[in-house]
Structure to design on (216 residues):
């Protein structure tokens, strides 16, 4: 209730200020003189009540604004901006490298999404096929058309062009374009050229390990 009253009084004070500002041109024309009237007692009382409620003498907020701050350094450097300063790091001794743990923990859905990202769609724009994928985790249907890969979980297509029976490691071999592992891990039944053409379109990331995220 106290806050509501303060808001009401503040609004009234602002309205009064706007009224005074609206008539400023008239005041400027006649200019203030000794005969100018002081504020009415009603205005004085309203202002005093607002001052009492808002407590303008309370400086706690100023103290809170600077509490816990550490003295600023002489110079400021952008963190994690080596590329911005020096360009892409090509020193293998200082570059981070993966050990394959991320791949080993990817679900079939993640692997298929990953495959869709790394396939060069311009190389398979004319490739159209449907593949049933049988995995220990479940069955999938993979459809390739107009350079786009779409998959559906827990489904099989009776008219599929080919069926691949494998494990997650077999799917990863496709992404990695590892023909030896594909032959050993994926059992194919149907048109085997579908997988061959799909693998040919996969982009090998090791060929693009040096690229600028930020141009210096």
């Amino acid at each position: 209730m106290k806050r509501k009253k303060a808001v009401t009084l503040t609004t009234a004070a602002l309205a009064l200020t706007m009224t005074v500002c609206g008539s400023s041109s008239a005041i400027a024309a006649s200019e203030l003189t000794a005969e100018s009237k002081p504020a009415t007692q009603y205005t004085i009382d309203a202002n005093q009540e607002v001052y009492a409620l808002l407590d303008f003498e309370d400086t706690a907020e100023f103290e809170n604004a600077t509490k816990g701050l550490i003295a600023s350094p002489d110079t400021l450097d952008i963190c994690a901006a080596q590329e911005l300063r020096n360009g892409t790091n090509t020193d293998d001794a200082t570059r981070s490298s993966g050990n394959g743990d991320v791949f080993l923990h990817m679900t079939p859905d993640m692997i298929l999404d990953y495959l869709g990202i790394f396939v060069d769609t311009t190389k398979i724009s004319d490739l159209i096929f449907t593949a049933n994928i049988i995995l220990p985790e479940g069955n999938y249907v993979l459809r390739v058309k107009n350079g786009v890969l779409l998959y559906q979980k827990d489904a099989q297509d009776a008219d599929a062009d080919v069926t691949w029976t494998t494990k997650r490691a077999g799917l990863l071999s496709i992404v990695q374009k590892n023909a030896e592992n594909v032959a050993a891990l994926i059992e194919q039944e149907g048109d085997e050229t579908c997988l061959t053409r799909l693998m040919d379109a996969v982009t090998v990331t090791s060929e693009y390990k040096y690229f600028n995220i930020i141009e210096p």
The chain is about 45% helix and 15% strand. The first strand starts at residue 129 and ends at 135. Confidence is low (pLDDT under 50) at residues 1-7, 16-30.
